[in-house]
Amino acid sequence: MPKNQKVCSHEALELEPSAYAKEAGFVWSSPDRRLAATTKSGRNPLITKGQNAKTLEVLTQDSASKLSSAFPGPLVLPNDELALNPKYPPQSFRSWLNESLRKNRKPNKRRQTLYVATAPEITSSVGFMKKWLQPHVKKGGKLMAAEMLNSLPTEDLVNFTGAFYHGMPVKAFPHRLQFVPWDEPKKSGKRDSNMDYVGLLAGNNCTRIRARPCPDGTFGRQLNLEDLLDAAIEMLLGDAYSIILLFDHDMYEDEDDDFCCGRAYGGNRVAVVSTARYHPALDDHAEIDFAHMWPASHCKSYVDSACTLEGVEPTPKKTQRMDDALGPLQAASEAAGNLAEPSTSEDRKALWFSRIARTTVHELGHCLGIDHCIYYACVMQGTARMAEDVRQPPYLCPVCLSKVSHAIACELGGRDEAGKEEYVKERYRSIANFCESWKQVGLFAGYGAWIRARLEQLE
Ligand SMILES: [Zn+2]
Ligand SMILES: [Zn+2]
């Protein structure tokens, strides 16, 4: 959507999937199924003995409507992941818990640390790799060099991840990673040092990484994701639950994709993220509407206009209940809505960081065995492109939250159900503290306000 659009006041919020969702064949799971998806038994927790069906339905509807002010449905706008894959299978808490692969990968006291490794050093013998970091944008049909930003602060990323996975130790990976030359022996017997391969050195271990020219020209060359994931597997330390590697270089997964941003091998508990495409200089190219990133992505007139563009009649506006109007999403929208577009490179770096932080915790969620979420707008939703990425929230929905809190509070911390509820609040406070120091950025300002309102609801 063009930048020069008139200023939107985000008057009403959309708490349900857009009108387009239906068109795409996405059927939102019922309130009963959504509640049931959070429990061990797989049954709606509001069911009691001797209750008649009507009472249960009323209770369920009421509970769903109260939850919606904090946990709206997935937006499902045109070309969003769930619009393209509307029948993606749900993973309830129960199915996550009973996942056979997961049984061997529960966090335990010996294996509980999450390691975060930020961009490797580019050694002088592969100095050409620095040029690959330069983003380019199309201007008047020509590719022009855009602003470069320095690498992200590892410490802040470690702190955010530590708050998000409160209760799991999160550390910076202790070994400095380095890019070094990789000499591939040629069939003719001659050795040829070219730019098709580079080496990624971690301690004594060097992995060959393929590099190819970037198809859309946004960056010079991009690195092969599979090779980077293989390198990550080699780096898992004995006490590591998982490792996530961040690269500032653009990445690709296979021959016919343009680029990819991140992937986890959940079974191996490793993940790789590229920060390249999250660069704010590329926002216009990625059709990102700054004014409607999360939480303003739930602005009803924004959602409606996306539907209208595809010729789909928007859903009529619902009258919001008083307690909805004061709910967490509304609080988030107000807190983030007061912030201006970033004007300095420091601001742009902070915006960039907020996106990477969200993606980092998403990928680590996969390492805990969590699949993409179809129940609510959620940090664990799959995403089809950058514009969708920035519309998604940083929080875990009730289903995904019950998985994370079970893994950390119960499996790792040995707590019971009541302890798990306490854990949820402790975790929220820990994230809110982090957000407080980053409230110049919309995502964190919104998340902090969302948490404070959610804690009020819980207390
Ligand atoms: Zn994912
Ligand atoms: Zn979820």
What topology does this entry show?
Blueprint lengths: L18 H6 L6 H6 L16 H16 L12 H4 L8 H5 L2 H4 L9 E5 L3 E2 L13 E4 L2 E4 L8 H11 L5 E3 L5 E4 L2 E2 L5 E2 L4 E6 L2 E9 L7 E4 H10 L5 E8 L2 E3 L9 E4 L4 E5 L25 H10 L12 H4 L2 H10 L7 H23 L18 H4 L8 H15 L4 H20 L5 H17 L1
Parallel strand pairs: 1-5, 1-12, 2-6, 11-13, 12-15
Antiparallel strand pairs: 3-4, 6-9, 7-8, 9-10, 10-11, 14-15
Strand fraction band? 5-15%
Given helix and strand content, the structural type is alpha/beta
Bound molecules: zinc ion
Strand order of the largest sheet: 2-6-9-10-11-13
Broad shape: globular
Domain module tally: 2
Poorly predicted runs of 5 or more residues: none
Q: How far apart lie the N and C ends?
A: 40 Å
- How would a crystallographer describe the biggest sheet? 6 strands, mixed
How many helical elements?
16
Please bin the fraction of helical residues. 25-40%
Q: Tally of extended strands?
A: 15
Q: For the residues shown, what is the average pLDDT?
A: 92
User: If you compute it from the alpha carbons, what radius of gyration comes out, rounded to the nearest whole angstrom?
Assistant: 23 Å
Describe this structure in words.
Helices cover 36% and strands 14% of the residues. With 459 residues, it is an alpha/beta fold. It folds into two domains: 19-47 and 64-108 and 289-458, no CATH class; 113-280, Collagenase (Catalytic Domain), CATH 3.40.390. The chain has a six-stranded mixed sheet. The chain has a five-stranded mixed sheet with strand order 5-1-12-15-14, sandwiched between helices. A hairpin with a 7-residue loop joins β10 (205-213) and β11 (221-224). α7 crosses α12 (345-367) and α14 crosses α15 (417-436). One zinc ion binds at residues 373, 375-376, 378, 380, 396-397, 399-400.
